[in-house]
Design goal:
single chain; 456 residues; mainly alpha; globular
């Protein structure tokens, strides 16, 4: 199946996304005023009634983002951008312009750079690709073998290393469990992140695409193991999000393949949970994990990183390994024992608690902290290049499989620096694997075509 014409089958996808985006921004605003301010004020969320200028600026930025966004879930980049759009772009706009400060004057340039950077990534993702409908079959038993072998090695190693502390922590024990399950070295750290974000999701994706339930179960077990060690909430969210995305992609109607549908679903979930959270435990739990931790906090980090690092303490990317040998740390942080852990520095500066780790998305950490508004554009261009390379590498692979396995990478980008996601959360892993495993298949197809032409 050729992936490009799918978008043309649904003529009103752009209008649907625009309406969905307005609904999403409205639902988030409702949740912000009625839930976040009441229950999350200690995180630094404040609110001052929006004026005409703020409303117009929000309307422009949201509409601009919707005009740039891919309208269909047809590529690896489309799922990544959808997650960034829902959990970083719109929340950053809504939270920043709701703060009790000189909002447009203080953050207007940074938000404009965010829009430019996001647009660059969307343009890269919307460029045409050379596709061949006869070659959308590549998955390969070797891909299953590789991921299954790595899953086993990581699972066995982590069980042996953390057997005494594996525990399904409740909400009150999360931070204690994370301290107990902290990586004891770089290798263990990579095993934790790759088991959760690469190998387990890959088994779930292969199991869904090939209809092998035992692989889906193994993927779930891997995520549960990680939760038992580190109490990371995404260990629960990932399998459910992957399965929900698979359900949408398997629908026959093109409507379900649009980016508008999941945007409306999340908007409706935010609104209803914020409306009923005082009356329903389920609604309160959804507000806590979805609206609060997953969406609102990444939006708040945009202003926090802007305030702490700019303009006098910009890192100029010295917080990234490799760059640190060429660029000196900011003077105010050069002797700080927390350097170069930006999340811990934010915790110490904003919350006066060096234990609080305020990780942030690529635009906040590798953008604003590095070079202010200019940094947002620079990391946005790097992000756009990676998305383009990823889409080109994934040509010929099963579309559903590609979207499902890249989904965790996109989710990681909403709460981690770009360089970290590339190395530790599968960003480079899938790019390289798509390229390496595709070449033998392409050579085989080309040889078959040459043989067929000679025979004719």
């Amino acid at each position: 199946m050729n992936i490009e014409p799918i978008g043309m089958r649904y003529r009103h996808a752009r209008l649907a996304l625009l309406i969905a985006s307005w609904l999403y921004a409205s639902a988030f605003h409702f949740a912000y005023v009625n839930y976040i301010i009441a229950d999350w004020g200690y995180w630094g969320f404040t609110y001052r009634t929006l004026g005409v200028g703020e409303y117009l600026f929000i309307a422009f930025l949201v509409t601009f983002g919707a005009a740039m966004m891919p309208t269909m879930l047809t590529r690896a980049s489309s799922i990544v951008l959808l997650l960034i759009y829902q959990m970083v772009y719109i929340p950053a706009i809504m939270v920043t312009l709701s703060l009790d400060t000189d909002r447009i004057e203080k953050y207007g340039a940074a938000l404009a750079s965010l829009a430019i950077a996001f647009a660059a990534a969307c343009i890269a993702a919307r460029r045409p690709l050379k596709t061949d409908p006869t070659r959308e079959r590549i998955s390969g038993s070797s891909v299953l073998g590789l991921n299954l072998f790595c899953w086993l090695i990581c699972s066995i190693t982590l069980i042996l290393s953390y057997w005494s502390i594996i525990h399904f922590a409740n909400l009150d024990e999360v931070y204690q469990q994370r301290a107990l399950g902290a990586a004891t070295g770089p290798l263990i750290g990579y095993m934790q992140t790759y088991l959760q974000n690469v190998f387990s999701p890959a088994l779930i994706a292969i199991g869904l695409v090939r209809k092998r339930p035992w692989l889906v179960i193994l993927g779930f077990v891997g995520c549960l193991l990680i939760y038992g060690i580190t109490a990371q909430r995404t260990a629960f969210l990932l399998p459910l999000t992957i399965m929900g995305t698979y359900w949408l992609l398997r629908r026959k109607s093109p409507l379900f393949h649009t980016t508008a549908v999941p945007t409306v679903v999340v908007a409706g979930t935010m609104f209803l949970s914020a409306y009923f959270y005082k009356k329903s435990g389920v609604a309160a739990l959804i507000c806590l994990y979805l609206t609060g931790r997953t969406i609102a906090v990444p939006g708040l980090t945009f202003s926090q990183y802007h305030d702490v690092f700019g303009p006098n303490d910009l890192t100029w990317w010295s917080h990234i390994k490799g760059f640190s040998s060429l660029i000196s740390a900011p003077a105010n942080f050069s002797g700080d024992p927390l350097w170069p852990q930006l999340g811990l520095l934010i915790g110490a500066q904003v919350y006066k608690n060096p234990v609080v780790n305020v990780n942030a998305n690529l635009y906040s950490s590798d953008g604003l902290a590095a070079a202010g508004s200019l940094g947002v554009v620079v990391v946005g261009l790097a992000f756009a290049i990676w998305l383009r390379l990823l889409d080109r590498a994934a040509v010929g692979w099963d579309r559903t499989f590609v979207i499902l396995v890249v989904l965790p990478v996109g989710l990681a980008l909403t709460n981690a620096p770009f360089a970290t996601v590339l190395l530790s959360f599968g960003g480079l892993f899938w790019l390289i694997l798509f390229l390496v495993r595709k070449r033998p298949e392409l050579r085989k197809t080309q040889a078959e075509g040459l043989t067929s032409s000679r025979a004719n």
